[in-house]
Specification:
Elements: H1 2-23, H2 26-38, E1 57-61, H3 64-75, H4 80-94, H5 96-99, E2 104-110, E3 123-127, H6 146-157, H7 167-175, E4 177-178, H8 181-189, H9 191-195, H10 198-204, E5 205-206, E6 209-210, E7 216-217, H11 220-232, H12 235-239, H13 241-249, H14 259-264, E8 268-271, E9 273-277, E10 280-284, H15 290-304, H16 309-325, H17 330-335, E11 350-357, E12 362-368, E13 399-405, E14 410-418, H18 423-437, E15 450-460, E16 467-471, E17 478-482
Helix pairs in contact: 3-4, 4-6, 4-7, 7-11, 15-16, 15-18
Amino acid sequence: MRRSRAGGRKWLRAGVLLALALTGSACDTVNSVKESLLGPSNTPVQGQAGFVQGFLGGVAADEPRAALAAREVLSSGGSAADAAVALGFVLSVTLPSRASLGGGGACLAYGADKKSANGGMPEAILFTPVTPSTVGGDRPAAVPMLARGLYLLHARYGSLPFEGLIVPAEQLARFGTPAPRALVRDITLVAGPLLADPNARAVFAQNGAPLAEGQTLLQPDLAATLTRMRVSGVGDFYTGQLARRIVEASPLAGGPLTLADLNAALPRLASAIVLPNRSDKVAFLPPPADGGLAAAAAFAVLQHDPSAFGAAAARGLAVAARWRQGGVDAESLLASASLQEAPLPILPASTSFATLDKDGNAVACALSMDNLFGTGRVLPGLGILLAASPAAAPTPLYAAAIAWNDNIHAFRAAVGGSGQAGAPMAVAVGMLNALRTGQPMSAAVPDPGRANVISCARYLPGENGSCGWATDPRDAGLAAGGN
């Protein structure tokens, strides 16, 4: 009997050593044994929806499917930046009229930990569309910036693998999604010139008529482009095989673009414009995202008189118009006592969103194509709409803001704005209302502006029950999260 027990122990030790050799860790061995006895665990791991239990943060965006994709990322343990990246890529599928891979934009990012990027101060990631070296064609195109901009945002503030954040957009493009109301409205506005392009017509029309709300939006060429980017990396879009295909196809969509144009198209980091507000601080996008500068100017007026909407709007637009004339920095413009009014041209449409994670990290972005659907022509075989060149069309007023308390280092509110000339006031009024009332959308912002707002009345980290999110009630967006 004694020999038998010794032999049993010997075989047991050998079995454990074999298991360790096969799995590489004792922890994995324990998990394997548990699964063999009790069945596979249903507990989500990081990167899977449901990983975060309880409060997970929130998102507000102009397009519902993009908002839901961002919420899933937050649920899987992703950061606010991870959610913003997934949201941006999904918008390139569901709202390419304002946020194609061929477009660009600007974001503000805030890290709740002082050890995070930029020492816990909000910073701007600027990736506005760039004029190519040669402006030609009847509808001149810009150099695409969205993918590199989202990549830089992720490099600074992301936590989940970047390639996984492309998957939701890739799947929606490949398998189709019901055409959202916001996209259908945009198609209706420019149906004539847009559907004159056969490649655009194949995507945005059905049976010869403009796509209707709820009809399937299917984009196999765009899905293949997203797959290539996921597998080969964002660099392939700017320096590799994808870049060469974009250059070859660009003359048909408003180019020409060159490999040198794509190689040189780099996003950049910039310090935010910061204004004090009682015990808090408010960061605004800086130029060339001059909608943030205009929003800061309008906000300063409203701080003194919350009812002075007309004066605030005029001041904001005057500051932006003067900056576009050149020769004056943003700080000097904000300090200037008076400015001569200078009219801005009719401005292109944009879209905005805001994200917040459970730890108090936040992102607020504004994206645009510098014209609805950019050049209005789809790159054949790639499924990408190119933004209109800034040399041929006025640039939008990219506007977003984030408020935080620097003393306790906690998030307070985030606002993204759109609505052409109304975008700066959307951000200024949306932020002021959030700070004064503690509600994310206590009142609608002035027309034609639209806002997406997230607010934590008693800060985050801290009282997550005080957080809320809202999208503009006059449009078809979605605010989603979890408490």
